[in-house]
Each structure stands twice: as C-alpha cells, then as structure tokens.
Design a protein that fits this description.
heterodimer; A: 87 residues; mainly alpha; Non-ribosomal Peptide Synthetase Peptidyl Carrier Protein, Chain A; 54% helix; globular; B: 460 residues; alpha/beta; FAD/NAD(P)-binding domain; 8-stranded mixed β-sheet; 7-stranded mixed β-sheet; 13 helices; 19 strands
C-alpha cells in the first residue's frame, strides 16, 4: 500500500464515522479534532476500524500520532506497506 | 457457539449497544422477552391505530451539524445521518401553574426571556443557575456525587414557584426519585429539555426502533424475540451463560442487561447478595390517549407539550390514591412541525400513579378504576383547559400495572431505581447494566447508555 492508499483508507473510515461531514475539505496538517469535531469516542472508533479492517492494534500511547491526517498516514504506512489494497 | 456478548432487552439501550458491538464484529445476541422491540419506548396497536408508549417527544433536539451534543454523539456512534431520524421539531411548550405560565421552545433564549418577563426579580439568579449548569460535568461516570437539586436551586432562586415550575417538566421526564432530584440528573434534563428541546420522529417510535433493529441485523447481530432470560448463570462471580425461558442455554463471554439493576441481580444463579445500591423505584404513571375528531389546536390546544399543576405547589411523589390528578403532562402529537399533518388529532394525558394500588385490584375493578381515574383526571384538566370530551373518537389508557407487565420493571417504575449505577458495573465480574438504571434517561439518553456501556466494558 502506498501513502496515498493509506490516506484514502483513513478518509473512508472518517466518512463512515461521520456521515454528515464533508470529508473532502479535510486539511492534512490540521488536527482532525478541530476540523470535524472528533472526540475521544471517535478516536476509539478509528482505532477499532483499523483493528477490524487490517488487524492492527494501535496502543493507547500512540493515539497522539493519529491527531492529523498526515500523522495517521506517516504512522500507519509502515504498518500497512506490505498489505494489498482489498479490491 | 459462544457469544462475545448477550444483551438482555431489545429496548433502545440494548439495540444501541448491539449495533456498537456488531459494528466491530463481535458475536452478539439480543434476547427480548416481549414480542415487540422497544422496551419502555415501544408502541402498540389498537383498532388499526399505532400508539407510541413512552414517547411524548424526543428530548435533546439539536440541529444537523452539531456533533458534540448527546444527539450528535449518538448519530456519530451509530453511524446515522441526522436526516435518517426524520426529526420534526416542536412548536412551543408550556409550564402552566395556577397563577403563572412559562413558555419554551427549542431556542433557549426564548425561555430566558420568559423568565425575565414573568419573574423579573429572579432573572439574575436564573442566569447564574444557567452558568452553573453550563459548567457542570453531569456525564461523569464516576459514582459518588449525591447532591440534590432543591438546595442548589434555592441558593440561586428565592421564589419557590419558579423552582417548582422548573422542576416540573424535568421531573416528569426523567426523575426516579420522589420529592427531589439528583442535581446531576437535573443538569442532564435541563440541557435535554430547555437548552436543547423537543422533536418527534416522523413515523413515531416504530420508525426509530426499526431503523436501529435493521442496522443491528445488517451488521450481523442476532435478535431473539418472545423468549426472556430465566437465569443468568454466574458461578463464582463470573457469568458463563444465560438460560432462556424455553430452557435454551446460551454460552457467553459477557452479559449486558437493560432489565434494571435489581431485576438483573434477581435473575442471577446462584443468587447475588444485594448491595447497598438496591433502592427500588416507585415512580410510575397512568396515561390516557384521546383520538379527537379535529386538530387539537382547533379545540384550544395549541402547545406541543404542557406540564401543569393545578395547585400552587408541585409535589412529585407517588400518590396515596390510584392517581394524582393535581399535576400532569399534556402532549399533542399534532403540534410538531411535520411535513404533512398527522391523519388524526391525538392528545395524551399523563398523571403520577401508584403501582401497588393498581396491582392489587381484581380484574373487574381494575377496568372500572381505569375509567373512573381517567374521568377524574379529565375533570381536573378541564378546570384549566378547554373541554374536548365531545370530540373524542377513540380512547385508551395504560397504568403502572401495564408498564410492569410489558417492561418487567419492579413497581412499573418508568425511570427505574433512584440509585443509578453510572459505571454499569455489578458484583458479577462480566455482567454489566445499561438503560434506565445506568442513569441516562429518555430516548437519546437510553441510546447513549447502551453506546457508552458497550464502549466502556465490551469493546476495549
């Protein structure tokens, strides 16, 4: 998976979690929390979606890496680089 | 086959918890003893008409786009869009006492203005109370805060009439305690009713319930209807399985029960010694529904909901007699902003009632008492409001006994025990509770209860 693939995956998770939000306007380097009102319950959802879709565990101490879209991509790409994008 | 979680009760909290668990691929089964879903917020059919029970209105209305509100959180967590719920806002509601009336809408500034006009010497205190409410953390799941409302209100407001008028709707819509109300519960209900407000889903309770049940099933959840839990098998303080009324035994890693705290412990086998948090709820209601031959507003009923007291002081407690006709709630379903008017006019009248008195009546007397109490309640109402008796085309009533029968709540206590178990824990390790006795009340509250207990105990 490329960085762009990972980015698209995060966006699709966010679209699932917040169906009323305009995901296309998300800025990669601004905190997600400030753009689409994510709270701690929602971060739990992101983490659980990652577990469900890719069987990866994000330990609680690493949640800070998921604060921005760019942060998510750089944290998750190494973990997902050997995976194929499901067709 | 072993379930990750068995959820007891297909009410809003159970369905919401089920959705959360199924969403993350847990093997989950909801068992419901009744043949309809919904629990305390359900519906029934009489003469081809569908009537909601429990639902006068949904509290906690916030518009689309507000995410941090209880409704916003609920929608996000269950992954619904605001539009999916088809919510129609109220027109205007009222608190009516003998000498004074306060109107409110879904715009809190309107109510603030009403207080300023009707109670000019209290508005400063009222504003300070609002400040306190805004900064109070009522959703903290830690137990221990036992602050009551009246002393807090008295420290801001010196007119007892205003205190009673503020308490009246909040108590009727969510107070399990007689006489006073836990302050955190007051804050929750103040936000839910005055700061946020009322709406009704187009299609009523069946619509919302089906939406949740469908989502649960699509996500792979299993729903067993008409087959209640007989025992929760908890050897050495750990649940291993539940046995249903038909003797079927289901193995499970955990149980989340919405039956009520004491009701849940009563099902445990071997018996669980009762803990100190076992106060039984007493507060229940009689409700009558009147289908009328025209729009309620044409009969002089133009408010969405009216909370009234025919006496200068409002007393929220279990009456000595079958019902208390000196206060009540009047709801006109038609006076919500539906895109199309409802087919028929519907007026509901709710009064406090005494479970024990109703329960001990023989069948014949019970039917007669329903009729008599309904007539008495109307007489009291019509000292205050226009008479609609000649316009009634269909009527029906239910009592605390009916509520007990369909919900299993001890004493037909609609809001459960006054002692809430906010963290959802029981003396049994993997047995948790959600719903009424966990402490988030109302439709939005119950749903959030299921969500937060699933998140806290069963998903991490």
């Amino acid at each position: 998976m490329t960085m762009e693939d990972v980015r698209q995956i995060i966006l699709s998770i966010l679209a699932d979690i917040a169906p009323d939000e305009d995901i296309s306007s998300i800025d990669d380097n601004t905190k997600l929390r400030d753009q689409i009102d994510l709270d701690s319950m929602d971060f739990l959802d992101i983490v659980m979606e990652l577990r469900k879709r890719f069987n990866i565990e994000v330990p609680e101490k690493d949640y800070e890496h998921l604060a921005t879209l760019a942060g998510c991509v750089s944290y998750l790409t190494p973990l997902l680089k050997d995976r194929q994008l499901a067709s | 086959m072993r379930y990750d979680t068995i959820i007891i009760g297909a009410g809003l909290s159970g369905l919401a918890a089920g959705i959360r668990l199924a969403m993350f691929d847990k093997k989950v089964c909801i068992v419901e003893k009744h043949v309809e879903i919904g629990g305390l917020n359900s519906f029934y059919v009489r003469k081809n008409r569908i009537f909601d029970v429990g639902l006068h209105a949904m509290t906690n209305y916030t518009p689309k786009g507000v995410r941090s509100s209880p409704l916003g959180k609920l929608l996000k967590q269950l992954r619904f869009s605001h539009d999916d719920f088809r919510l129609c806002q109220q027109d205007m509601s009222e608190i009516r006492f003998p000498e004074r009336s306060l109107r409110f809408t879904n715009d809190f500034e309107f109510m603030r203005q009403e207080v300023a006009e009707k109670f000019p010497d209290q508005i400063d205190g009222f504003n300070k109370l609002v400040e306190k409410i805004l900064t109070y953390d009522a959703l903290n799941l830690d137990d221990g805060d036992r602050l009551l409302s009246r002393p807090v209100l008295e420290s801001f407001i010196s007119d007892p009439l205003l205190i009673d008028m503020l308490l009246c709707p909040l108590m009727y819509y969510g107070n399990a305690r007689e006489g006073d109300m836990d302050f955190y519960q007051f804050v929750v209900m103040f936000n839910a009713i005055f700061m946020e407000g009322f709406s009704k889903p187009q299609g009523g309770m069946p619509f919302i319930l089906n939406l949740l049940a469908e989502k649960f099933k699509v996500l792979g959840g299993e729903l067993k209807m008409g087959n209640g839990v007989k025992t929760i098998n908890a050897k050495q303080g750990t649940v291993g399985s539940v046995t249903l009324e038909n003797e079927e035994e289901l193995a499970t890693e955990a149980v989340l029960s919405s039956m009520g705290y004491v009701e849940t412990l009563n099902c445990c086998q071997p018996e669980v010694p009762e803990t100190d948090a076992c106060e039984r709820g007493q507060v229940s209601f009689m409700e009558s529904l009147f289908v009328v031959d025209r729009e309620p507003r044409d009969l002089g009923y133009d408010k969405s909901i009216v909370f009234f007291s025919t006496q200068p002081r409002f007393d929220y407690k279990v009456p000595v007699d079958l019902i208390d006709i000196s206060s009540g709630v009047l709801c006109c379903s038609n006076n919500f902003q539906y895109p199309e008017p409802l087919e028929e006019g519907l007026i509901r009248l709710t009064n406090l009632a005494h479970f024990g008195k109703w329960d001990s009546l023989p069948r014949k007397d019970y039917i007669a008492a329903k009729k008599e109490c309904r007539a008495k309640a109307l007489d009291a109402l019509f000292t205050f409001f226009p008479d609609f008796r000649d316009n009634v085309v269909f009527l029906d009533s239910f009592t605390p006994k009916t509520i007990k029968k369909y919900t299993g709540h001890i004493n037909g206590a609609v809001y459960g025990s006054p002692q809430k178990i906010k963290n959802g824990k029981t003396p049994v390790k993997n047995l948790y509770i959600c719903g009424t006795d966990q402490g988030f009340l109302g439709i939005v509250g119950a749903t959030l209860s299921g969500i937060s207990m699933a998140n806290l105990h069963l998903l991490r």
